[in-house]
Amino acid sequence: MIPVTTFAGKTVAVFGLGGSGLATCHALIAGGANVIAFDDDARKVAEAKAANVGTADLRSIDWSKIAALILTPGVPLTHPEPHWSAKLATAANVEIIGDVELFCRERRVHAPDAPFVAITGTNGKSTTTALIAHILREAGRDVQMGGNIGVPVLQLEPPTNARHYVIECSSYQIDLAPSIDPTVGIMLNVTPDHIDRHGTIENYAAVKSRILGRAKTRIVGVDDEFGRGMMKGLAAMQKFVVPISIKQIVPHGYVGGEKNIYRTGASEAEDIADLTGIGSLRGSHNMQNAVAAFAACSALGVDDKTIQAALRTFPGLAHRMEEIGKKGAVLFINDSKATNADSAAKALASFENIYWIAGGKQKEGGIESLTEFFPRIAKAYLIGEAAPDFAATLNGHVPYDMSGTLDAAVAQAARDAASGGKGAVVLLSPACASFDQFRNFEIRGEHFRTLVQGLL
Questions:
Q1: Where in the numbering of this chain does the Mur ligase C-terminal domain appear (predicted)?
Q2: Which residues make up each annotated binding site?
Q3: Which CATH architecture has domain 322-455?
């Protein structure tokens, strides 16, 4: 745990008592703060009380005595409208921040030289985070990894100047971290997502860009218009940027080719890594992740040979292009993390002869953007709320079954793929959130794994 000492002796309100919220309460208490916590879910309030956290309805407290409101990232700060707790704090002129901001303040006070890598982007940030942490560990560094990737940042070990922090940051977390100041800030990409929480994609991109403003090294993916805009804006302010791309040559940056990574100068490129045969980094999207990780670890002083060796031992992440196994010639891939079309596109681009399981709670745009990949799909198996809309898009282009459930889809896809010829792949890459049938994408992916292992 990282005790939050910057609010010692002060009263702090906390709203949201899920995993990160409860961890925040304990970190504040350990640092000497007086905590008043609450949640709209009465069960979570009862759990906090049982864990010796002080609770009270924040609608009935004296806000003039509150030093800050620590808001869980899952609660709206601005759109579609601020949560009632945020409205109360704003009316009382109380700052609203999150756990990543608390971490940043503790680091500045206790170990300002602790290397801190912050990673954001619509897609790829979890893999990039895990890959950077893996490379740094292989290089012998003391590494703590957390944030949006699963371990609340305040549950990590306390900062020391030799301890490296590799933190995945969602747009929600960045929105609540006004002073975020990483040693290396990485912005991978921006595609439409979370518009309901930020109002417009421009607002969403602007929040993402904050990870770069105070960073010492700024790594920016320039393969979309928003990344290019961020690079131009920072350059106009004479702030140094390391561009990364898998689509074009960029000067003084890093470029991913079909299989190789290159470091570019003003006029020439140096071949520095080869991803051939690394199954955990299959696909162009993982090339971007690897390029970003190489750039970050180079900035932290890791030599090229060590990085290349570590790339080859990277095990990958669960639910992200995860190879579950093979039955005969059929490969089963768990890409449950593909919760939008852009993410699913990365998986569809990585295989031929695909037996595609898709659907769930649909996001804006559906799968219209995936039409270029339809020739790769032998058949689709549609599940969840999105199934009728997905069927309408596929109709006349890709044969499909209205499977309804993941259980039925796996059975049907496995049966058809068994006679599907060379290179058949059963791919769960839903292009949807999971919330219609599963609590989160992890549970969906675990269920897929269990079903496939039953077949194997």
A1: 319-432
A2: 121-127
A3: Alpha-Beta Complex (3.90)
Give dist(CA 145, CA 179) in Å, integer.
20
Q: Which residues pair with 38 in a beta bridge?
A: 15
Q: What is the DSSP string of 292-327?
A: HHHHHHHHTT--HHHHHHHHHT----TTSSEEEEEE
CA nearest neighbour of 64 among 91, 37, 82: 91
User: Mean pLDDT for each consecutive 10-residue tract of the chain (456 residues)?
Assistant: 98 95 97 98 95 96 97 89 96 98 98 98 92 98 94 97 97 95 97 73 91 97 95 92 95 95 90 92 90 98 97 92 93 94 91 97 90 98 97 97 98 97 96 93 97 95
Fold of the domain built from segment(s) 103-312: UDP-N-acetylmuramoyl-L-alanine:D-glutamate ligase (3.40.1190)
Domain boundaries, the chain: 5-97, 103-312, 322-455
Helices (H), 111-200: 125-138, 171-175, 195-198
Output the CA torsion 225→226→231→237 (10° steps). Answer: 120
**C-alpha torsion sign, points 102, 103, 109, 113:** negative
What's phi and psi for 354, nearest 5 deg? -95, 135
